[in-house]
Amino acid sequence: MDARELKGPRGRLLTTYRFLTDPYATSLAWRDAYGDPFLARVVNGDVVMTGRSEHLKAIFAAPPDTFDPFGVQAIAPVVGKGSLLVLTGEAHRRERKLLMPPFHGSRMRAYESTMRDVTLRHLHEALRAGGVTTMKDIAQKITLEIIVRAVFGVEDEREADAIAKGVVDVLEAVHPSFLFAPFLQRDFGGLGPYARFRRAAEAGDRELQALIDARRGRGEGDDVLGLLLAARYDDGSAMSDAEIQDELRTIVTAGHETTAMALAFLVDLVWRRPEVLARAKEEANAGGALPYLDAIVKETLRVRPILTEAIRTLKKPLVMGDLEVPAGMHVGVSAVLAHHDEERFPEPEAFRPERFLGRTFGPTEYIPFGGGHRRCIGAAFAEMELRIVLAGFLQSVDLTLLSPASSRPYRRNLTMAPKDGVPVRFAGRSTQSLLRASEVARAPSQGTFHGSAA
Ligand code: HEM
User: Fold this and answer.
1) Ligand 1 near 260 CB (within 6 A)
2) What's the whole-model pTM score?
3) Does 451 map to a domain?
4) How much is the pLDDT for 313?
5) Among 125, 162, 376, 445, which one is least packed by beta carbons within 10 Å?
6) CB of 259 closer than 6 A to ligand 1?
7) Domain total for the chain?
């Protein structure tokens, strides 16, 4: 069957609007109405949307040159033309090879104590300020500082803060209007959101270059920037400064807001379920491996996928089962649909970390980090970070949710986020003891924090 004949919702503008504002509910409603796959006709094209394992297999296994990333024109100004998110074909493959090692295996262990240290310090600051905040706020501070420290190798708090602020200034200047309507990416005589964004971005570029220059002078180290400066392509050449700038921007951008929103959702889900919370606390306080916390992280990303779908544009026709998708159409790998497969995840709306205890799901069944040749390079880093921050919360503070009802998920720019930010109150341990604990975590002689899964 030709994919153009698939059924789907009518009205391009309305479909786009519903899909952008409430992708969780709309994806499921459309699957119920039209089946999986269905055809979402949106303003920037026709997307074959699917969460079916056999179709995902066809998409992830297809040769990389079958696809272009979707919406490149929209994100290119934010991350840069040389960003992994934008590159295709051989350039993408060779760039991934250089970027992946810092986020794998033993390299990642180097970030564990930073993750714990940053968590405790931000809890200390929240307590000192009276304890009332939102998870969104504290999670953004924690994840941004963690990624900045891991990437730039800075120890000094003020330096980390200054870098973080530089990045946030640029991201804050991003406006959905020009992301989703790239024809608005024009200067208009220095007025309007895009001109404002360009000014912030140029200042950001200058700061990044200064950081690259300074890091070059310091020599070797475990931080991502140090590894990128030392990395070599297959032909022995090094990355140019412009390439490094684009990838630093990409990693910090892709790596902090996603993890922050996952953490905010996680707290909202766990702290409303006394039995889950009790079991998590017990495991965190036992000080050993953290399989249940790992399961909580995975179940959070199942019910609240932060990027609801990975969309690719077909450069060549693709066959998925009995479906032929012609070149020019788009395929959307939907985490919402995949994670709501009732056979794999019975009662899919229920939050049950136990689903992930003692079993794993395949790369076409559970896809919070996408898949195939563009799968998220920070997946292991993000899961470890969420586990360690959660352990830090459970061990160090009493947390109370201040809103009587669960937070409503909505799409904020590209990522999903809890609408009310998840208001919380922290209480408990004295702030001094938190700081002492954070210093202990920082001292290398104290060994590693038990942040790993079983
Ligand atoms: C909970 C947190 C995170 C979630 C839910 C998430 C999710 C995703 C998804 C769905 C994709 C697209 C995959 C695809 O197209 O198949 C992606 C790509 C990517 N992510 Fe993440 N991510 C997270 C954290 C991170 C972190 C911490 C980093 C960096 C350290 C990172 C760096 C990237 C990069 C560079 C790409 C582009 C890969 C490529 O195009 O080859 N992400 N992420």
Assistant:
1) no
2) 0.92
3) no
4) 94
5) 445
6) yes
7) 1
